[in-house]
Design a protein that fits this description.
It is built from 23 helices and 26 strands. It is of the alpha/beta class. Strand 23 and strand 24 form a beta hairpin. It starts with 10 loop residues before the first strand and ends with a strand.
């Protein structure tokens, strides 16, 4: 049994099969299905859990029951230590091996797992769920059993050490009244992701009443977001009424509100005329981990604060759960669909495996949403990148290997929505010239998939998608044979909400990077609108300028490219990878050293794409240099030398990195191009050959020639 549906857990078996299986054999299955190297602590914990449960579950050996280790809750990226499906009930077990005490945070953790199953796991919506925390050396056990006050079939969290766990399970079964034989939840492990109406209502209320300035602050006039949102909703209505599959491509200048449009469509589609429309819902998806983490935390904290101010009892984890209903990481959506396919893929054709998925009426084998909004669609992966990723087992936690995957990420995402048997809409939010990672396909991969594999889909496209920064200006050529294309200027967001004082900032940055003749004139226009873009060669002056400009809660920060290498001499540290670090950098206030406002940690284009500051310093390193009125590109070897970069695709990504950084600020930018180090050793050699002045002077002189004011 454990091999058939292994994609969503590390191990599954009947109670009898588990009890009779050798412990080393079970550990072997856990190791084989875990992605990455298993730590000794994890291995020891698994071994103790196996020994304990093989003894404790003996009274139910002949029951039609299942045990599951390390179960992935669909699309939420969370794993439960052990799930027991017994007597029609769901036991969530969270082990703390070796602990003698129960911590409040651990109790909350196991309760959160139970709530996540109740709210997002279709086959758990109407089941009794029992969360149990097991600090193994805890000498006591819970003796009071009661469902939660919310009348949702979830027991209040229970606590037990290893010596009392069997007795506790007996008592819970007796208390629940589930003493008779009960069919096991046979399809439980492959349950579709499906939010309850309660969680959707909470998310809708949370979002529509938010006041998170970090996300939506703007003072722009004549913004077109409302018109764009209505156009998309009209496409959705037509698709629903005529059972069509449609895709919309929305473009916009940096900071024009593409993310906000996506979030609004996700919420408004789920709520038409103020009423919940659960059957026709939408989800906002992004491959940008820091963006999703920051949006989620900002909205959740805002909601938590409002509830606290109103005297309402609510935990921050509840607010996070509500946000996660409509803001999710695209990789988890993708991986949940991958878990349903026949593997290995035969003859280059991706097909659903009926034994790995449950077919629902209307939905078919697709995910629950009719509408999927993909932010930063230009960053979807090429076929080569995703194929290599899945070949080595790319899903963290579970070793989901697809050795011969035949699709690009864009093609697979369209295929995923195409599995619906009625209608579907994809909304692609596209940033021009913002592919910043190797293996990011750009928009052409979506168009190729539509042209070749999904010719039945109607295509609605921004008339600006023909500009050079989208698919190298080849969109018209790529779509010339497609007869289902409709162009509309309502799918382009032309006004920046981010840079509310400089609607022409994005044009200026584009011209600056392209060496266009109009760059100097555009800079004058930006300056006339009281949007400062200033220049310095001194990081201390840059920091002083940022601190002098910011008022109240306005946010400042230092930005560098991920290829930048010689920033330490300027007392700048690169923000460590990890979404949690990005959350602290963006959302903590000026009293917290992890905040961007401390001007110590610099974020890269990977961490800030899609997000924004009030005032930013772009620290320009020697990775991209102006030489003879063109950009030359270099990568540091990690020791003592910058090597020329000649790969055309890589150079495009490096140029786009500066495009992203230079368009992150709402109210002003200081560009710091260092002096470099001109000092010589007594022997007549450069003191620091990695920071020679000539690496920087050309860039500084070019920016100065455009009229940039110097501090």
């Amino acid at each position: 049994m454990q091999q058939k549906t292994i994609n969503r857990c590390l191990y599954i078996n009947s109670f009898r099969g588990f009890i009779e299986q050798d412990r080393m054999s079970i550990l072997g299955v856990l190791h084989d299905n875990y992605h990455g190297e298993v730590l000794t602590t994890s291995n020891d914990a698994w071994a103790e859990e196996i020994d304990l449960l093989q003894e404790i579950l003996v009274p139910w050996k002949n029951e039609n029951a299942q045990i599951i280790f390390e179960y992935d809750i669909p699309r939420l990226g969370k794993r439960i230590d052990v799930v027991l499906l017994l007597k029609g009930m769901i036991f969530c077990l969270e082990f703390k091996v070796g602990n003698k005490f129960a911590l409040q945070s651990d109790v909350e953790q196991v309760m959160d797992y139970a709530l996540d199953l109740k709210n997002f796991h279709l086959f758990s919506h109407d089941k009794i769920i029992v969360p149990i925390l097991i600090p193994t050396e805890y000498i006591s056990s819970s003796s009071v059993f009661q469902p939660s006050i919310y009348n949702d079939n979830i027991y209040n969290p229970l606590i037990s050490g290893k010596f009392n766990l069997q007795k506790l399970i007996h008592k819970i079964i007796e208390h629940s009244g589930c003493c008779e034989y009960c069919e096991t939840l046979g399809d439980w492990i492959r349950s579709p992701y499906s939010p309850t109406p309660t969680i959707i209502e909470a998310a809708r209320t949370l979002y529509e009443n938010h006041s998170v300035e970090d996300i939506t602050r703007h003072e722009a006039d004549n913004v077109s977001t409302d018109s764009t949102i209505q156009y998309i909703l009209d496409v959705i209505d037509r698709s629903k009424n005529y059972n069509k599959k449609s895709i919309c491509f929305v473009t916009g200048v940096p900071g024009a509100g593409k993310t906000l449009v996506g979030l609004d469509v996700a919420v408004k589609q789920s709520y038409r005329n103020g009423e919940l429309d659960k059957e026709n819902g939408a989800v906002y998806l992004s491959g940008n981990g820091p963006l999703v983490a920051v949006l989620t935390e900002a909205l959740a904290k805002d909601n938590y604060k409002k509830c606290r101010d109103r005297g309402e009892p609510k935990k921050l984890s509840d607010s996070r759960r509500e946000v996660s209903e409509f803001i999710q990481i695209i990789h988890r959506y993708r991986d949940n669909m991958l878990a349903k396919i026949k593997n290995p893929v035969e003859n280059g054709i991706v097909e659903i495996d009926p034994e790995k998925a449950v077919k629902l009426e209307g939905t078919g084998y697709a995910e629950v949403e009719h509408v999927a909004i993909f932010d930063e669609a230009q960053r979807s992966w090429t076929h080569k990148r995703i194929a290599n990723y899945l070949k080595r087992g790319g899903t963290y936690g579970n070793k989901l290997k697809v050795p011969n995957f035949p699709m690009s990420e864009a093609e697979f995402l369209i295929w995923s929505l195409d599995q619906r048997e009625d209608w579907a809409v994809i909304v692609c939010l596209v940033g021009g010239g913002q592919e910043i990672n190797t293996g990011e396909a750009g928009i052409s991969e979506w168009i190729n998939a539509l042209n070749v594999k999904f010719r039945n889909w109607d295509v609605y496209i921004s008339n600006k998608l023909t500009d050079p920064e989208y698919a190298e200006g080849r969109v018209n050529e790529l779509l010339s044979e497609n007869k289902r294309v409709t162009y509309s200027d309502r799918l382009h967001l032309a006004v920046s909400l981010r840079s509310f004082r400089a609607e022409t900032l994005s044009d200026f940055i584009h011209s600056l990077l392209a060496f266009n003749d109009n760059a100097k004139q555009l800079y004058l226009d930006v300056s006339r609108r009281n949007y400062p873009v200033v220049l310095t060669r001194d990081m201390d002056k840059a920091r002083k300028w940022l601190r002098s400009m910011a008022r109240g809660t306005q946010q400042t920060g230092i930005l560098v490219t991920k290829v930048a290498a010689r920033f330490k001499p300027l007392a700048v540290n690169i923000l460590a990878q990890g979404d949690e670090n990005a959350v602290h950098w963006f959302l903590e206030d000026k009293t917290d050293i992890r905040s961007s406002n401390y001007l110590e940690d610099a974020a890269t284009e990977i961490q800030v794409q899609g997000l924004e500051l009030d005032y930013a310093c772009v620290l320009w390193d020697a990775d991209m240099r102006c030489e003879d009125n063109e950009w030359t590109f270099y990568k540091f070897n990690g020791k003592n030398k910058w090597n020329p970069e000649n790969n055309v695709e890589t150079k495009k990504y490096m140029l786009n990195a500066y495009r992203v950084l230079l368009t992150r600020a709402r109210q002003g930018i200081v560009i710091c191009v260092p002096y470099g180090n001109s000092k010589m050793t007594p022997e007549g050699f450069p003191e620091d050959p990695t920071r020679l002045p000539e690496f920087y002077d050309g860039t500084y002189n070019y920016l100065k020639s455009l009229g940039l004011k110097e501090l």
